[in-house]
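I'll show a sample.
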Amino acid sequence: PVPVPQVGTNLTDLRLPRRVTVRELGGCMGPIWPSYYSECSALLFVVDASNPTQVSSSCIQLLSVLSAAPLASVPVLVLFNKIDLPCYMSLVEMKSLFRMQDIVSCATQPITMLETSARDGTGLAAVLQWLRTVLKDP
C-alpha cells in the first residue's frame, strides 16, 4: 500500500502506561489547528522526508505552530517520516533545509527531532519514550 497524506482528523488512544489521546490533524487541516492548541500537552509535527517539494510549506506550518501563544511551552517532537523510502532526505539534510538550528534557538519550547518510518516501525519506540518523558508517565 502507498502511504497517503493525512486528510481530516483521527483520534487514537495510547497507553504509556496511562491513557493518552493523540489527535492527528493532516496538513491540509492547518486552518483549524489553532482550535486544538489549548488542549495540547505535547506536539508531534510529522514531515514527509521523502518529498522535497513539501519542505517549504512544512517549514512555514511549523513556524506558525511554534509562534502560537497557547503552545509557547509545549514540548515539540519533529518527526522526519518515511525514511524507509529510497528517496528520503537524511536528518542532516532535513535539519539544513528547515534551518532547524535557527528554529530551535528562537523557539520558546523544547524541540526534539527524530527520523521515523511509520511503515516499518523505525523510530517509533523512541517516539513513545519521548511521550512518556514529556508527559511524565513512568
Summary: Residues 17 and 133 are 12 Å apart (CA to CA). The chain has one domain: 34-135. The first strand starts at residue 9 and ends at 15.
